[in-house]
Amino acid sequence: MNFDLPDDHRLLRDTVRDFATQEVAPVAGELDRTHRFPYAIVRRLAELDLMGIPFPEEYGGAGGDSLAYALVVEELTRVDSSVAITLCAHTSLGTQPIFLFGTEAQKQEWLPQLCTGERLGAFGLTEPEAGSDAGNTQTRADLEDGHWVINGSKQFITNAGTDISGVVSITAVTSSRGDRREISNLLVANGTPGYEPGLPYRKMGWNASDTRPLSFVDCRVPEENLLGQRGAGLRQFLRVLDIGRIGVAAMGVGLAQGALDQALGYAKERRAFGQPIAKFQIIQAKLADLSTEIEAARLLVYKAAYLKDTGRDFSLTAAQAKLKSGRLAVHAADEAVQIHGGYGYIEEFPVARFYRDAKVLTIGEGTDEVQEMVIARALGA
Predict the structure, then answer these.
(1) Is the Cα dihedral 286, 292, 298, 301 positive or negative?
(2) N or C: which end of the chain has fewer CB within 10 A?
(3) Distances in whole angstroms, Cα of residue 247 to Cα of each of 75, 89, 91, 289
(4) Is 70 in contact with 247 (CB distance < 8 Å)?
(5) 237-242, long-range: CB within 8 Å, 24+ apart, which pairs?
(6) d(CA 240, CA 2)
(7) Which residues make Cβ contacts (< 8 Å) with residue 40, sequence separation at least 6?
(8) Spatial contact of 27 and 41, defined as CB atoms under 8 Å apart
(9) Which pLDDT tens digit goes with each residue over 77-125?
Protein backbone atom coordinates (compact mmCIF):
# COMPACT_ATOMS: atom_id res chain seq x y z
CA MET A 1 0.00 0.00 0.00
CA ASN A 2 1.52 3.30 -1.13
CA PHE A 3 0.65 6.41 0.86
CA ASP A 4 2.77 8.76 -1.27
CA LEU A 5 0.89 11.16 -3.52
CA PRO A 6 1.63 10.79 -7.24
CA ASP A 7 3.93 13.50 -8.58
CA ASP A 8 1.17 15.30 -10.49
CA HIS A 9 -1.08 15.38 -7.42
CA ARG A 10 1.74 16.67 -5.24
CA LEU A 11 2.50 19.42 -7.77
CA LEU A 12 -1.18 20.40 -7.87
CA ARG A 13 -1.37 20.51 -4.07
CA ASP A 14 1.74 22.68 -3.82
CA THR A 15 0.50 25.02 -6.57
CA VAL A 16 -2.84 25.55 -4.83
CA ARG A 17 -1.13 25.94 -1.46
CA ASP A 18 1.03 28.73 -2.86
CA PHE A 19 -1.98 30.38 -4.50
CA ALA A 20 -4.01 30.21 -1.29
CA THR A 21 -1.17 31.62 0.79
CA GLN A 22 -0.19 34.40 -1.58
CA GLU A 23 -3.52 35.48 -3.09
CA VAL A 24 -6.37 34.29 -0.86
CA ALA A 25 -4.99 34.72 2.67
CA PRO A 26 -4.21 38.47 2.32
CA VAL A 27 -7.84 39.30 1.41
CA ALA A 28 -9.81 36.59 3.25
CA GLY A 29 -10.39 38.62 6.41
CA GLU A 30 -11.60 41.70 4.53
CA LEU A 31 -13.92 39.67 2.29
CA ASP A 32 -15.38 38.04 5.39
CA ARG A 33 -15.80 41.37 7.19
CA THR A 34 -17.52 43.06 4.23
CA HIS A 35 -19.47 39.98 3.10
CA ARG A 36 -18.18 40.46 -0.46
CA PHE A 37 -18.23 37.63 -2.96
CA PRO A 38 -14.65 36.83 -4.14
CA TYR A 39 -15.11 37.48 -7.86
CA ALA A 40 -11.41 38.16 -8.48
CA ILE A 41 -10.36 34.96 -6.74
CA VAL A 42 -12.92 32.90 -8.66
CA ARG A 43 -11.49 34.31 -11.89
CA ARG A 44 -8.03 33.23 -10.79
CA LEU A 45 -9.33 29.76 -9.90
CA ALA A 46 -10.71 29.55 -13.43
CA GLU A 47 -7.37 30.66 -14.91
CA LEU A 48 -5.67 27.88 -12.94
CA ASP A 49 -8.15 25.31 -14.37
CA LEU A 50 -9.54 24.56 -10.92
CA MET A 51 -13.25 25.10 -11.54
CA GLY A 52 -13.74 21.83 -13.41
CA ILE A 53 -11.12 19.53 -11.92
CA PRO A 54 -12.89 16.13 -12.10
CA PHE A 55 -14.54 16.59 -15.50
CA PRO A 56 -13.28 15.52 -18.95
CA GLU A 57 -11.19 17.91 -21.01
CA GLU A 58 -13.66 17.56 -23.91
CA TYR A 59 -16.13 19.61 -21.85
CA GLY A 60 -13.58 22.16 -20.67
CA GLY A 61 -12.64 20.31 -17.49
CA ALA A 62 -9.17 19.51 -16.20
CA GLY A 63 -9.51 15.74 -16.60
CA GLY A 64 -8.53 15.17 -12.96
CA ASP A 65 -9.82 12.72 -10.39
CA SER A 66 -11.53 12.88 -7.01
CA LEU A 67 -8.24 12.85 -5.12
CA ALA A 68 -7.00 15.89 -7.05
CA TYR A 69 -10.29 17.62 -6.28
CA ALA A 70 -10.05 16.79 -2.56
CA LEU A 71 -6.49 18.12 -2.42
CA VAL A 72 -7.52 21.44 -3.96
CA VAL A 73 -10.49 21.85 -1.61
CA GLU A 74 -8.34 21.01 1.41
CA GLU A 75 -5.67 23.56 0.53
CA LEU A 76 -8.17 26.35 -0.11
CA THR A 77 -10.05 25.68 3.13
CA ARG A 78 -6.77 25.72 5.02
CA VAL A 79 -6.84 29.47 4.35
CA ASP A 80 -10.46 30.41 3.68
CA SER A 81 -13.71 28.46 3.76
CA SER A 82 -15.78 30.93 1.72
CA VAL A 83 -13.58 30.49 -1.33
CA ALA A 84 -13.48 26.73 -0.81
CA ILE A 85 -17.25 26.28 -0.54
CA THR A 86 -17.76 28.40 -3.65
CA LEU A 87 -15.60 26.00 -5.65
CA CYS A 88 -16.91 22.95 -3.80
CA ALA A 89 -20.63 23.66 -4.29
CA HIS A 90 -20.04 24.66 -7.91
CA THR A 91 -18.16 21.46 -8.71
CA SER A 92 -19.81 18.74 -6.62
CA LEU A 93 -23.36 20.03 -6.58
CA GLY A 94 -23.76 22.46 -9.46
CA THR A 95 -21.83 20.78 -12.25
CA GLN A 96 -21.88 17.11 -11.24
CA PRO A 97 -25.63 16.49 -11.85
CA ILE A 98 -25.36 17.71 -15.44
CA PHE A 99 -22.29 15.58 -16.07
CA LEU A 100 -23.84 12.47 -14.51
CA PHE A 101 -27.41 12.67 -15.76
CA GLY A 102 -27.57 15.25 -18.53
CA THR A 103 -28.21 14.55 -22.19
CA GLU A 104 -25.38 15.26 -24.59
CA ALA A 105 -27.17 18.46 -25.61
CA GLN A 106 -27.39 19.58 -21.96
CA LYS A 107 -23.74 18.77 -21.44
CA GLN A 108 -22.68 20.69 -24.52
CA GLU A 109 -24.77 23.68 -23.46
CA TRP A 110 -23.65 23.93 -19.83
CA LEU A 111 -20.47 22.01 -19.04
CA PRO A 112 -18.05 24.21 -21.04
CA GLN A 113 -19.36 27.31 -19.25
CA LEU A 114 -19.24 25.63 -15.83
CA CYS A 115 -15.96 23.73 -16.13
CA THR A 116 -14.08 26.85 -17.25
CA GLY A 117 -15.59 29.00 -14.49
CA GLU A 118 -17.36 31.31 -16.89
CA ARG A 119 -20.55 30.51 -15.00
CA LEU A 120 -21.28 29.04 -11.58
CA GLY A 121 -23.56 26.08 -11.00
CA ALA A 122 -25.94 25.65 -8.08
CA PHE A 123 -27.94 22.82 -6.55
CA GLY A 124 -31.49 23.27 -5.25
CA LEU A 125 -32.64 20.50 -2.92
CA THR A 126 -33.31 21.96 0.53
CA GLU A 127 -36.69 23.56 1.27
CA PRO A 128 -38.36 24.93 4.41
CA GLU A 129 -39.98 21.50 4.97
CA ALA A 130 -37.43 19.33 3.17
CA GLY A 131 -33.89 19.27 4.49
CA SER A 132 -32.73 15.97 5.91
CA ASP A 133 -36.14 14.67 4.80
CA ALA A 134 -35.36 15.40 1.14
CA GLY A 135 -38.25 13.25 -0.07
CA ASN A 136 -40.70 15.79 1.37
CA THR A 137 -40.05 18.23 -1.49
CA GLN A 138 -43.00 20.59 -1.96
CA THR A 139 -41.85 22.43 -5.08
CA ARG A 140 -44.02 21.36 -8.02
CA ALA A 141 -43.46 21.25 -11.75
CA ASP A 142 -46.44 20.63 -14.04
CA LEU A 143 -46.01 19.83 -17.73
CA GLU A 144 -48.04 22.22 -19.87
CA ASP A 145 -47.72 22.72 -23.63
CA GLY A 146 -44.13 21.48 -23.80
CA HIS A 147 -42.96 23.42 -20.73
CA TRP A 148 -42.50 22.63 -17.06
CA VAL A 149 -44.30 25.22 -14.93
CA ILE A 150 -42.48 25.42 -11.59
CA ASN A 151 -43.88 26.77 -8.34
CA GLY A 152 -42.18 26.55 -4.96
CA SER A 153 -39.11 27.61 -3.04
CA LYS A 154 -35.65 26.45 -2.02
CA GLN A 155 -33.42 27.61 0.82
CA PHE A 156 -29.74 27.67 1.80
CA ILE A 157 -28.66 27.55 -1.86
CA THR A 158 -25.03 28.36 -2.70
CA ASN A 159 -23.87 30.19 -5.86
CA ALA A 160 -27.33 31.00 -7.29
CA GLY A 161 -27.32 34.78 -6.85
CA THR A 162 -23.97 36.04 -8.14
CA ASP A 163 -23.34 38.00 -11.33
CA ILE A 164 -21.78 34.87 -12.85
CA SER A 165 -24.40 32.33 -11.73
CA GLY A 166 -25.53 30.22 -14.65
CA VAL A 167 -27.90 27.40 -13.78
CA VAL A 168 -29.46 25.61 -10.84
CA SER A 169 -30.61 21.99 -10.86
CA ILE A 170 -33.64 21.52 -8.62
CA THR A 171 -35.89 18.77 -7.34
CA ALA A 172 -39.60 19.11 -7.96
CA VAL A 173 -42.69 16.94 -7.70
CA THR A 174 -43.69 16.21 -11.30
CA SER A 175 -46.63 13.95 -10.51
CA SER A 176 -48.54 12.73 -7.46
CA ARG A 177 -51.23 10.13 -6.93
CA GLY A 178 -52.36 9.68 -3.36
CA ASP A 179 -49.30 9.02 -1.24
CA ARG A 180 -47.12 8.35 -4.27
CA ARG A 181 -45.04 11.34 -5.35
CA GLU A 182 -42.85 11.44 -8.44
CA ILE A 183 -39.77 13.62 -7.89
CA SER A 184 -37.68 14.72 -10.86
CA ASN A 185 -34.75 17.03 -11.52
CA LEU A 186 -34.97 20.13 -13.68
CA LEU A 187 -32.47 22.67 -14.95
CA VAL A 188 -33.37 26.33 -14.49
CA ALA A 189 -31.14 28.97 -16.03
CA ASN A 190 -30.54 32.23 -14.19
CA GLY A 191 -32.68 34.98 -15.68
CA THR A 192 -35.62 32.69 -16.45
CA PRO A 193 -38.88 34.63 -15.83
CA GLY A 194 -40.52 33.49 -12.60
CA TYR A 195 -37.24 32.38 -11.04
CA GLU A 196 -36.07 34.81 -8.39
CA PRO A 197 -33.03 34.43 -6.11
CA GLY A 198 -33.79 36.04 -2.76
CA LEU A 199 -31.65 38.30 -0.62
CA PRO A 200 -28.50 36.69 0.80
CA TYR A 201 -28.70 35.30 4.30
CA ARG A 202 -26.89 36.91 7.23
CA LYS A 203 -24.76 33.95 8.30
CA MET A 204 -22.51 33.04 11.20
CA GLY A 205 -19.70 32.14 8.82
CA TRP A 206 -18.84 31.59 5.15
CA ASN A 207 -19.60 35.29 4.85
CA ALA A 208 -17.90 35.79 1.49
CA SER A 209 -19.84 32.95 -0.16
CA ASP A 210 -23.25 33.39 -1.79
CA THR A 211 -26.10 31.69 0.10
CA ARG A 212 -29.75 32.63 -0.37
CA PRO A 213 -33.31 31.34 -0.85
CA LEU A 214 -34.84 30.82 -4.28
CA SER A 215 -38.46 31.23 -5.34
CA PHE A 216 -40.31 29.95 -8.38
CA VAL A 217 -43.63 31.48 -9.40
CA ASP A 218 -45.07 30.08 -12.64
CA CYS A 219 -41.51 29.67 -13.85
CA ARG A 220 -41.57 28.04 -17.28
CA VAL A 221 -38.67 25.98 -18.62
CA PRO A 222 -38.67 23.79 -21.76
CA GLU A 223 -39.67 20.14 -21.40
CA GLU A 224 -36.14 19.13 -22.43
CA ASN A 225 -34.79 20.77 -19.24
CA LEU A 226 -35.70 17.55 -17.43
CA LEU A 227 -32.41 16.24 -16.06
CA GLY A 228 -32.15 12.50 -16.48
CA GLN A 229 -35.07 10.12 -16.15
CA ARG A 230 -38.41 11.46 -14.99
CA GLY A 231 -39.12 10.28 -11.44
CA ALA A 232 -35.47 9.54 -10.68
CA GLY A 233 -34.77 12.85 -8.98
CA LEU A 234 -34.33 11.66 -5.42
CA ARG A 235 -32.12 8.74 -6.40
CA GLN A 236 -29.99 11.05 -8.56
CA PHE A 237 -29.50 13.66 -5.87
CA LEU A 238 -28.58 11.06 -3.25
CA ARG A 239 -25.79 9.96 -5.58
CA VAL A 240 -24.68 13.56 -6.02
CA LEU A 241 -24.65 14.04 -2.24
CA ASP A 242 -22.42 10.98 -1.80
CA ILE A 243 -19.91 12.58 -4.16
CA GLY A 244 -20.30 15.98 -2.55
CA ARG A 245 -19.41 14.57 0.86
CA ILE A 246 -15.87 13.92 -0.31
CA GLY A 247 -15.48 17.64 -0.99
CA VAL A 248 -17.06 18.77 2.26
CA ALA A 249 -14.99 16.24 4.19
CA ALA A 250 -11.89 17.70 2.55
CA MET A 251 -13.07 21.10 3.77
CA GLY A 252 -13.20 19.76 7.32
CA VAL A 253 -9.63 18.49 7.08
CA GLY A 254 -8.45 21.75 5.54
CA LEU A 255 -10.07 23.94 8.18
CA ALA A 256 -8.71 21.76 10.99
CA GLN A 257 -5.23 21.92 9.46
CA GLY A 258 -5.48 25.68 9.06
CA ALA A 259 -6.54 26.04 12.68
CA LEU A 260 -3.59 23.92 13.78
CA ASP A 261 -1.23 25.99 11.61
CA GLN A 262 -2.45 29.18 13.27
CA ALA A 263 -2.33 27.71 16.78
CA LEU A 264 1.19 26.36 16.36
CA GLY A 265 2.49 29.61 14.91
CA TYR A 266 0.98 31.63 17.74
CA ALA A 267 2.15 29.21 20.45
CA LYS A 268 5.75 29.49 19.25
CA GLU A 269 5.64 33.30 19.40
CA ARG A 270 3.52 33.97 22.49
CA ARG A 271 5.62 34.02 25.65
CA ALA A 272 4.44 33.46 29.20
CA PHE A 273 6.40 32.79 32.37
CA GLY A 274 9.62 33.40 30.49
CA GLN A 275 9.19 31.02 27.54
CA PRO A 276 7.03 30.40 24.46
CA ILE A 277 3.76 28.76 25.46
CA ALA A 278 4.55 25.99 22.94
CA LYS A 279 7.06 24.72 25.53
CA PHE A 280 4.32 23.97 28.05
CA GLN A 281 3.17 20.37 28.13
CA ILE A 282 -0.53 21.22 28.16
CA ILE A 283 -0.18 23.20 24.90
CA GLN A 284 1.98 20.49 23.35
CA ALA A 285 -0.69 17.92 24.18
CA LYS A 286 -3.36 19.96 22.40
CA LEU A 287 -1.18 20.37 19.31
CA ALA A 288 -0.18 16.71 19.26
CA ASP A 289 -3.75 15.48 19.60
CA LEU A 290 -4.95 17.76 16.80
CA SER A 291 -2.15 16.66 14.49
CA THR A 292 -3.00 13.00 15.06
CA GLU A 293 -6.73 13.47 14.54
CA ILE A 294 -6.18 15.52 11.37
CA GLU A 295 -3.99 12.84 9.84
CA ALA A 296 -6.62 10.19 10.59
CA ALA A 297 -9.37 12.30 9.01
CA ARG A 298 -7.19 13.09 5.99
CA LEU A 299 -6.65 9.38 5.34
CA LEU A 300 -10.41 8.79 5.46
CA VAL A 301 -10.97 11.53 2.87
CA TYR A 302 -8.25 10.21 0.59
CA LYS A 303 -9.62 6.67 0.92
CA ALA A 304 -13.11 7.84 -0.08
CA ALA A 305 -11.64 9.60 -3.11
CA TYR A 306 -9.59 6.51 -3.99
CA LEU A 307 -12.62 4.23 -3.78
CA LYS A 308 -14.63 6.52 -6.05
CA ASP A 309 -11.79 6.85 -8.55
CA THR A 310 -11.40 3.08 -8.75
CA GLY A 311 -15.12 2.53 -9.32
CA ARG A 312 -15.85 0.96 -5.95
CA ASP A 313 -18.60 1.69 -3.42
CA PHE A 314 -17.51 4.79 -1.52
CA SER A 315 -20.75 5.85 0.20
CA LEU A 316 -19.85 4.48 3.63
CA THR A 317 -16.33 5.91 3.64
CA ALA A 318 -17.51 9.29 2.37
CA ALA A 319 -20.07 9.48 5.18
CA GLN A 320 -17.45 8.45 7.74
CA ALA A 321 -15.01 11.03 6.40
CA LYS A 322 -17.62 13.78 6.45
CA LEU A 323 -18.73 12.92 10.01
CA LYS A 324 -15.17 12.71 11.31
CA SER A 325 -13.78 15.79 9.61
CA GLY A 326 -16.73 18.07 10.39
CA ARG A 327 -16.56 17.35 14.10
CA LEU A 328 -12.80 17.66 14.02
CA ALA A 329 -12.99 21.06 12.33
CA VAL A 330 -15.20 22.36 15.14
CA HIS A 331 -12.88 20.93 17.79
CA ALA A 332 -9.71 22.20 16.11
CA ALA A 333 -11.10 25.71 15.71
CA ASP A 334 -12.16 25.71 19.36
CA GLU A 335 -8.71 24.60 20.53
CA ALA A 336 -7.00 27.16 18.28
CA VAL A 337 -9.07 29.95 19.81
CA GLN A 338 -8.28 28.65 23.29
CA ILE A 339 -4.54 28.57 22.58
CA HIS A 340 -4.75 32.16 21.34
CA GLY A 341 -6.43 33.17 24.57
CA GLY A 342 -8.03 36.61 24.45
CA TYR A 343 -6.60 37.24 21.00
CA GLY A 344 -8.57 34.26 19.70
CA TYR A 345 -11.71 36.28 20.34
CA ILE A 346 -10.46 39.18 18.24
CA GLU A 347 -11.45 39.24 14.57
CA GLU A 348 -8.00 40.39 13.50
CA PHE A 349 -6.80 36.82 14.01
CA PRO A 350 -7.91 34.17 11.46
CA VAL A 351 -8.89 31.67 14.16
CA ALA A 352 -11.98 33.73 15.01
CA ARG A 353 -13.13 33.34 11.39
CA PHE A 354 -12.24 29.64 11.42
CA TYR A 355 -14.32 29.21 14.57
CA ARG A 356 -17.38 30.74 12.91
CA ASP A 357 -16.85 28.86 9.65
CA ALA A 358 -16.44 25.43 11.22
CA LYS A 359 -19.88 24.71 12.66
CA VAL A 360 -21.72 24.44 9.34
CA LEU A 361 -19.50 21.48 8.42
CA THR A 362 -21.55 19.39 10.87
CA ILE A 363 -24.79 20.55 9.22
CA GLY A 364 -24.42 21.13 5.48
CA GLU A 365 -24.28 18.29 2.92
CA GLY A 366 -26.17 16.14 5.41
CA THR A 367 -26.14 16.69 9.16
CA ASP A 368 -24.03 14.57 11.48
CA GLU A 369 -27.20 12.71 12.38
CA VAL A 370 -27.82 11.86 8.73
CA GLN A 371 -24.23 10.65 8.35
CA GLU A 372 -24.69 8.39 11.36
CA MET A 373 -27.86 7.02 9.80
CA VAL A 374 -26.06 6.35 6.50
CA ILE A 375 -23.18 4.64 8.31
CA ALA A 376 -25.47 2.52 10.49
CA ARG A 377 -27.45 1.35 7.47
CA ALA A 378 -24.23 0.43 5.66
CA LEU A 379 -23.24 -1.65 8.68
CA GLY A 380 -26.55 -3.51 8.49
CA ALA A 381 -27.95 -2.06 11.70
Answers:
(1) negative
(2) N
(3) 12, 9, 9, 24
(4) yes
(5) 237/97, 237/125, 237/134, 237/171, 237/185, 238/134, 239/100, 240/92, 240/93, 240/96, 240/97, 240/100, 240/123, 241/365, 241/366, 242/314, 242/315, 242/318, 242/319
(6) 29
(7) none
(8) yes
(9) 999 999 999 999 999 999 999 999 999 999 999 999 999 999 999 999 9
Q: Is the pLDDT of residue 216 over 70?
A: yes
Do 70 and 305 form a contact (C-beta atoms < 8 A)? yes
Q: Which of 110, 107, 114, 97 is nearest to 52 (CA)?
A: 114
The residue extents of the domains of the chain are 7-119, 121-231, 235-378
> What residue type is assigned to position 366 of the chain?
G
Q: What is the pLDDT of residue 207?
A: 98
pLDDT at 178: 67
- CB-based burial, 239-269: b 16+ in 10 Å, e otherwise: bbbbbbbbbbbbbbbbbbbbbbbbbbebbee
Structural element, H or E, at residue 353: helix 350-358
How high is the pLDDT of residue 148? Answer: 97
Provide the whole-model pTM: 0.96
Q: Are 371 and 319 in contact (CB under 8 A)?
A: yes
Q: Which residues are catalytic?
A: 365
pLDDT for position 145:
94
CB 247 within 8 A of CB 335: no
CATH 3.20.20.210 corresponds to the domain 121-231: no
pLDDT tens by residue, 167-203: 999 999 998 776 678 999 999 999 999 999 999 999 9
For 278, residues 6+ apart whose C-beta sits below 8 A from its C-beta are: 264, 267, 268, 284, 287
In order, the DSSP letters of 16-28 are HHHHIIIIIHHHH
| CA separation for the pair 49, 42 (Å, rounded) | 11
Given this structure, which CATH class describes domain 235-378? mainly alpha
DSSP run (H or E) holding 299: helix 281-309
pLDDT digits (tens, 9 = 90+) for 9-56: 999 999 999 999 999 999 999 999 999 999 999 999 999 999 999 999
